[in-house]
Amino acid sequence: MTKVPLLLLSVAASMTSGLTTTEYQITSAEALAAHTTLGAQLVLLDTASSDGNWTYAKTLFQQTVATAHGQPISLENIGRLHQQGSDVDLFVSYYGTADYASTFVNAAITNTAPFDGALTDKMRAELTMKGVVLQSVTMGALNTLRTSIDKCVAKVDVGNANGAPSYVDLAWALFSAKQSQIALGEKRCPQFNTCLPNDQTLPPQSSKSIVNNVLLGLFHQARKNAQDGQCWALQNNVELIAAQLTIPVIQGMLREAYEVDPSADGVADGLVEVCEGWGFAAAVLPRIARCNATAGTIVNENMNTVSFITSTPAGSKGVYMKDGFQTVVDAVENTFACLGITCQEVKAMVAKGTSHPLWQSCRLELNNKDNNQMSISKEEYETWRQIGIAFIVISIALTGLLCFSMFCSDDRKHQQGRGRRQSRGASDLCAAPRAEPENLELHEALQVGTLEVTVEGRE
Q1: CA 14-20-22 angle, 5° bins
Q2: What are the angstrom distances between the C-alpha of 362 and each of 144, 368, 370?
Q3: What is d(CA 80, CA 176) in angstroms, rounded to the nearest whole number?
Q4: Domain limits of the chain?
Q5: How many CB atoms lie within 10 A of CB 416?
Q6: Higher per-residue pLDDT: 432 or 454
């Protein structure tokens, strides 16, 4: 997918001037209610998890909090809302169950298989919240966007609460709810230097995250596409949204991978950070593996929490980030083009309080680009050098043959005028062994023409 980040950003800015990311102006009453109640439920779940109140946390996870398009919504089932489309199919195929998000979160809440009681409360809290937000809620938003495309194509109630625009509204409501994924973009932008410059930031209460501003513009465009019945444009914007949603998730994954790798001068040394990394990785791993199976294997083997947490003592089954952070980041960055994102959009984490990157973003891509440019330059030089030599050789040969032919022609005319042959000498080279044809000039012209065609054929 060809990406033009600056163009996307300019579109977002032009469509959000004077707006904040919470002022999307949702027109669907159901979507607005879902936005409010879902955000409140996420706050309660976060508090319960942080306090270690796991019985209440499980209740909050399963409790119905809203209704949209006739379907009840809970944090547990929201990932199966309008379950359809390439996004959810990919995750179901990778994890082998339609309840992959629910399975992930319930294992953390109950501290059961595959963890079997090995998680601390802090580890459980990290896995719970990241599983709910990044797998369940985000997938619910994507499924809802896919449904908007179907409604657009079917031309079902375009202008009212059940039409395609209302599904775009609901998707935005899920994405932008309090403590939903929109918060992740804001948290990562100062860590990865992906915030808008101060002079480009919208009003003070607005989002500073570039990716969130791009997403806001894309959601606005998607809703307008749905309202106007421009279904192909709607589908294109949905694909762009799906790609942009991966950016803060990948940033979070790479951040934790860096921090827990001693060889990368990481600042974290606990298994809590290991769990955080897996919470991010699990939410994007199926996409990475689809793009590059080897990259998916590298991420899974280096960041999957289970084999490290369930060992006794913890971590005895192997060293976390066994291949090293750089191997992981190289593998992940190698899938960016396939994921529809760029190095410039993701960047590298910066040292706290500075703009100094802690690793080189897409170093392999830069090295390959430099090598390819050098290789192409040499090949082009050699090709043109050979062409030049061939041209000179052929030009000399043709010139010599032409001069030789002209010399022979003049000599034969001279012989015809004298009416006799010289006994010996340089002119014997051009003497004809038989009688001269009546139309000597025509014959000579044909000889020259035949020579030229023959030379051109060999060239």
Answers
A1: 130
A2: 33, 10, 13
A3: 18
A4: 5-361, 367-458
A5: 12
A6: 432
